[in-house]
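For practice. Any example?
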Amino acid sequence: MADEYFFALTLNGKVSKVWDPEAKGAEDYQGGHKLIIKQMLLGPEATEGELNVVQVEAMTWKDSVKIPVATLKAGGPNNQVLLDLAFPDPLVTFTLVQGNGPVHIIGHHLIGSPMEEFEEMDELEEEMLDDEEGEEGAEEGTNRKRKISNGKSKEEEEEEDEPKTKKAKTTNNTKGKTPVKNNAKPKK
């Protein structure tokens, strides 16, 4: 199970900030770290009319990519942007390539479970598999006992003994209506 933590950082000027949780001496986690960015917004100190462009540098499956992810302008409707960016692997570098900010970046930091927890889970899974194999062997033995002389199991024989029901036919009269059965008793 992953633990989820609030993530936030602020960019001012041309200084880059790097998300690298492994550099902080974090434990070895199965599932690692994942960063999800949900929002970028300008702080109240941002210069009105100034365009602020946030660039992200992150790894793709092959190599590193640098790309702008938000353009923000103070004093108008573009002072914040809602995002849903997921970075499954550290290192992620945030840079304010244009403008002076401040730009606040908000999201979630997901952390996988420690390796020790996964080792314990592996041991439990092995025990469960051993138990299931033992139960399957016992079931096979009881199924063999159920076989009777004609080679069919008790369940198959019971199914054959059940009467087969026939579906009643309904016929329509000449006007296309189903006839109604009259349950009234005749008068004497």
